[in-house]
Amino acid sequence: MHINRYGFREQPFQMTPDARLFFASSVHSRAYAHLTYGLAQREGFVVVTGEVGAGKTTLVERLCATLDPDGFAVARIATTQVSGDDVVRLVADAFGASSEGSKAAVLMSIAAMLRNAAKRHLLIVDEAQGLPLQALEELRMLSNVTDGGQAPLQTVLLGQPQLRRMLASPDLDQLRQRVLASYHLGGLSREETHAYVEHRLRAVGWEGCPSWEGPALDLVHQYSGGIPRRINRLCSRVLLAGALEGTDELTGPMVEATALELEDDLSGGAPVFASTASLPMEASLDRLTDRVEALERLTARRERIFDRMSELFSDGARAHR
């Protein structure tokens, strides 16, 4: 709906990672530099961690888009709740080697494929924090394959923050020694959140309509923590609300009401005041007052949206007749 209302070519805040919409924030630029540095070493592991939605997959999508397909064979593993033996078979399947027979036979098939191919092989393992230690150790063993003194396989491990704790385990000391570059993706700053939102909008044809109040974008940062996927989810809903209300100006109260609506949707109706329990009494009362006022605005906005949707339905029904 908001595509038509505001004249966008496509959705500016889609949830699916898209390398075309990559935003070179300070944290993502540094993470990308670590990826390219690790790749230039032609061996070992590169590790990128971050919260869910921090942009790890988009970062790797951008990297892969720059790789020469004649020089690289790229394979990805997204299913990580598997045993060590199964991860070996997944690697074989991903690169087109035989995964039939015993584990030893599969390992020999992978080694032969790596040594006989003219390309470098890049394995990307997403959600790597879900792998058991045995599976990570199997990946380390694959990194031992060499051809003429060169390592034909490199591995990028993408994962949530707990992956860093896993790699600190004494049982993974040998794998840790093969990590050539590691970076943790944090959230965007307030200023970068403003720039990110405008970047995504301009990429789909935005020319200033709808306009965003400065305080509105400040609240986008506050409620999203600067995590790109959370920004996308919130801004998409704010645009929908703006389209339904027929407004060309997106305000702070609108962002706040939408954020509370999302919080209510995703918490299953859990109390929204729970976060005030540990605050001093005066601060708790102030926070509760703010939230009550925000909820009142949310209720009023929902009523306006309901009225608008009823009008649209009535207009459509009359046109159909």
Structural commentary:
By secondary structure, this protein is α/β, with parallel strands linked by helices. The protein folds into 2 domains: 26-185, 3-Layer(aba) Sandwich (Rossmann fold), CATH 3.40.50.300; 190-320, no CATH class. The chain has 13 helices and 7 strands. The strands form 2 sheets. Strands 2-3-4-1-5 form a 5-stranded parallel β-sheet, sandwiched between helices. A two-stranded parallel sheet has the order 6-7. Helix 6 links the parallel strand 3 and strand 4. Helix 10 (214-224) packs across helix 11. The chain starts with a helix and ends with a helix.
What is the topology, as strand order, of the major beta sheet? 2-3-4-1-5
Which oligomeric state applies? Answer: single chain
| Global structural class | alpha/beta
Characterize the biggest β-sheet.
Answer: 5 strands, parallel
Query: Which blocks of ≥5 consecutive residues have pLDDT under 50?
Result: 269-279
**Order of SSEs, N→C?**
HHEHEHHEHEHHEHEHHEHH
Number of self-contained structural domains: 2
CATH architecture of the largest domain: 3-Layer(aba) Sandwich
In one word, what is the shape?
elongated
Which range best describes the helical content: under 10%, 10-25%, 25-40%, 40-55%, 55-70% or over 70%?
A: 40-55%
CATH homologous superfamily caption of the largest domain: P-loop containing nucleotide triphosphate hydrolases
What is the average of the pLDDT values? 85
